[in-house]
């Protein structure tokens, strides 16, 4: 069975203490789960998060890159993270402050993903010694012929950065373990680039084509089997320097959910974890009156909040649900 993904705000709030001392009765939890959103996650294991204040039930999501449902939020968050870093650099250092760098495998064509990142660390050190690298975000591309490329967005910051000559970059890349073939180009601001991935981002949010392209590589490598990336274990598909975007991918997911919620307030909780097996066969006849009140309370809460669904299948006015 697929492994459950990293914990979220809801999961941390509904920790071991919440499991020991619950405020929601089993029959109430059963009714909330029965009326909850149909799980969209392909790796759903029967775990739900139930709000004690509204009795809203949210199914846990695996948050794996290879899950067709969960990848929608993750890829959108990757676009958000990459785009925010581009905007930050261009706002502070001008329209030519970000460069898209492509680095290739060595001549033997046998580098794995770990080798690419190891060579990148060596190249980054060489660039920083020359004040040519500030912040960065990178991802591996697996080509159809099996070769790997590393794509990096390099942004100017207080740490350095600036124009990089193609010949100088090729020489340093080769000395760091990459192949001699490389490419570097300036990233134009999103408004002038005219790219807007409105199919999976909120209307009016513009993103550079490079941000969308890099996020695509992230999603593809995240869903690719480790063996195809020539490594024994699955690796993080997105590498980000500390100053690119505060909070990383988790913070980007929160920003995306907030945009999808369109200003609506999140359910305050507190949230409790319930498994379908726990509430199976709950005696609803013993608490018919209470359940009627629960159903009415849940319905009125949903009406007041104007709850909507995000493309990944969870109410967007909730915290980062599973």
Strand content: 5-15%
Total of DSSP H or I helical runs spanning 4+ residues: 11
| N- and C-termini, Cα separation | 17 Å
Major beta sheet, specifics? 5 strands, antiparallel
Counting copies of identical and different chains, the oligomeric state is single chain
Helix content: 25-40%
Q: Give Rg in angstroms.
A: 23 Å
Instruction: List the secondary-structure elements in sequence, H or E.
Output: HHHEEHEHEEHEHHEHEHH
**Order of strands in the sheet with the most strands?**
6-3-5-4-7
Shape descriptor reads elongated
Compute the number of strand runs: 8
User: Could you list the spans in which at least 5 consecutive residues all have pLDDT below 50?
Assistant: 1-9, 11-19, 193-200, 285-295, 297-322
- Average pLDDT works out at 76
Structural class: alpha+beta
What number of domains? 2
Question: Which key features would you list for this structure?
Answer:
three-stranded antiparallel sheet, 2 domains, single chain, alpha+beta, 322 residues, elongated, 13% strand, five-stranded antiparallel sheet, disordered C terminus
Describe the structure.
The chain is an alpha+beta fold. It folds into 2 domains: 9-64 and 264-305, no CATH class; 70-259, no CATH class. It contains 11 helices and 8 strands. It has helices at residues 9-13, 16-20, 26-34, 70-93, 113-129, 166-176, 190-193, 209-223, 248-261, 276-279, 288-305; strands at 47-51, 57-59, 98-103, 135-142, 148-155, 182-186, 239-240, 271-275. The strands form 2 sheets. The protein has a 5-stranded antiparallel sheet with strand order 6-3-5-4-7, sandwiched between helices. The protein is elongated and about 70 Å long. It starts with 8 loop residues before the first helix and ends in a 17-residue tail after the last helix. Mean pLDDT is 76; it is low at 1-9, 11-19, 193-200, 285-295 and 297-322.
